[in-house]
């Protein structure tokens, strides 16, 4: 099910406000290798993540997929001493993979009153986009019954096209989980072999969904969903076969995701220069503007876990990780002159700072 999303309401928020970090994971503390030792989703693996991997199929819809296994989800090195999560899709016409961590309902219930927007940001590397595989990869936020995608996105391995997914009612079609192209053909295509930061959000009160990504205006694209009043219950990394009757899938491929952040907010802060946790406001970045080195300091002895720098198109251009360091230096001499967003992840949460490279 796919629709073209062309008539979209745009809105711009200039408010840099506090929001609560619900989940934050850069996967660097996990061991390289398989996330789980089983594929039924019943036993937690590394970092508390579960894996469900299936070849799909039944007596009425036979499958040609044969590669479901624990190797479908792995922790892999992504460069600059960083790690990410790799998913491998099915190698035939049916099948799926889901990776998730329990606990979101409790985190959501404990949020501050009026923070009724759940926001998710993640870096994804779509690969070269020259594969013959029809696999699609993405992230969904589900309701408790797992029959509604409150908001999500997918990326086509073959074309690197980005899609918005949500439970909605695109007239004259019935309400269902629909996938939307974000522009006329060939759509919004992510850069090849590059990590791009994708942001999606869902407003529980209004049902509105939003997506921000490279190639989309800074305000993002919004769509009225049909799930107003439904609380988020689970976040899944996922991959599907992508096969259709006219274009059957016959091979598998992989994508890598990194730097997951999930927040509860009262207004739109996706990919903004916004403070995500009030306890991290003591971080200072200097000099700014800078030419070569930027020093990150704080007066509260908060340890920096990692930094990532993205350009204004949402592409991740630098990633560094640290261990028990409260003051760190970042070399930006290799970056082109311009404005960037630096996300600082700490033991207390995350904060994003705007930096200028001379």
Structure description:
The protein is mostly beta strands and 358 residues long. The chain has one helix and 24 strands. The protein has two domains: 2-265, Jelly Rolls (Sandwich); 278-357, Immunoglobulin-like, CATH 2.60.40.3080. 2% of the residues lie in helices and 44% in strands. The longest helix has 6 residues, at 104-109. The model is unreliable at 1-17 and 273-281 (pLDDT under 50).
Secondary structure blueprint with pairings:
Layout: E1 2-4, E2 20-25, E3 33-34, E4 49-54, E5 73-79, E6 82-88, E7 96-101, H1 104-109, E8 117-125, E9 136-142, E10 149-156, E11 162-168, E12 176-181, E13 196-203, E14 208-212, E15 221-224, E16 234-240, E17 254-265, E18 284-286, E19 293-297, E20 304-311, E21 316-325, E22 328-331, E23 338-346, E24 349-357
Task: Please sum up the structure shown.
The protein is mostly beta strands and 358 residues long.
Residues in helices, as a percent range: under 10%
Shape: globular
What is the second-level CATH architecture of the largest domain? Answer: Sandwich
- According to DSSP, the number of beta strands is 24
